[in-house]
Amino acid sequence: MSINSNVRPKVSVLIPVYNSADTLERCIRSALWQTLANIEILVADDGSTDDSAAIAERLAAVDPRVRVMRIWPNGGKPAAMNRMVAVARGTWIAVLDADDAYHAQRLERLVEEADLHGVEMAADNLFYVDAGADCITQTAFEPDVPARILTKSDMLQNSDSYATFDFGILKPLIKRSFLLANGLSYFEKTRLAEDFYYLMGFFVAGGRGVLVSDPLYYWTMPFGSISRTWTSTGSGAWRYDYRQALTANAHFIRMARGAGDADTVTMLQARSAQYRVMIHYLTAQRAASEGAWARCLWTIATHPSTYGLLLRRVWGRLAPQPKPGPRHRVAQVHPSLHAPSRGRAA
């Protein structure tokens, strides 16, 4: 493919990578296969100790749209994202996690919708992928409904960290000029819920978006609902660091309170309460895994706020799980997957 390096890319796809050799090639190729060809793909290898950097550099050698930077030592996704935004040249910034993939029409569709509605952000529905079972289990929300405009009120109403679908897992396409004009960046002091805080900052700054109901992003669940196994990216200690997330949340509460944004303060305080419940719940879970049942039961008994979450998790283990048919298999994401319908914003 002949690429004119003097033409500004329409989209910069940012891929933060840490030890993702098993999935990275599929991930990058799903971006290269986009029907919107005028893109650049920035891959930040964040101190990987496997072959991730070599895979990215091999693909960069055959397609000039791929650019690779090596970061050492590992600093986490937020820092890697900020490094890439600083050097990105695209009009739009899109995130793609290294164990996920795009539908072939994703970027073309999202740019089209954002331009059509004059908004600074576009996001889409997600396929939930159980990597251990190699299948799609569900979509984040009901597909085949009209796209709709998103505002801060939507963010406030859909920010439940217990929910199956929390706006914090959306993978938005955002105008780079809006990010720079409002000084928005990833918060580098947490590795948990970093996408949530990034998107929250966008809405608090007055951004408006459009949400497309077609599933165009293949999101690998950290813990498979069918396989009951963790992915390699989902099993790290950071997955449990709700104390760190609580500290980050306190930072944003102070910012919102200083700006007189009472609604955001209320939402974040509720999220802090959820984080505290998770801290107690995981403390009990660790005690159980160590066979310290007295400590486990004492933690639960002295923290009644964990009861609801405990019952929800027990039901999740006991409830019948979906049995996806062959059409849901995703051994390899390929652009020949079905083309989505084209709903419009109301």
Write up what this structure looks like:
With 346 residues, the chain is of the alpha/beta class. 38% of the residues lie in helices and 17% in strands. The protein contains 11 helices and 10 strands. It has helices at 24-32, 52-62, 77-87, 106-117, 152-157, 176-181, 194-204, 242-258, 262-289, 293-301, 307-318; strands at 11-17, 39-46, 66-71, 92-95, 101-102, 121-130, 135-139, 148-150, 173-175, 209-220. Strands 1, 2, 3, 4, 5, 6, 7, 8, 9 and 10 form a 10-stranded mixed beta sheet that branches. A hairpin with a 4-residue loop joins strand 6 (121-130) and strand 7 (135-139). Helix 8 packs antiparallel against helix 9 (262-289) and helix 9 packs antiparallel against helix 10. The longest helix has 28 residues, at 262-289. The radius of gyration is 20 Å and the shape is globular. The model is unreliable at 234-238 and 331-346 (pLDDT under 50).
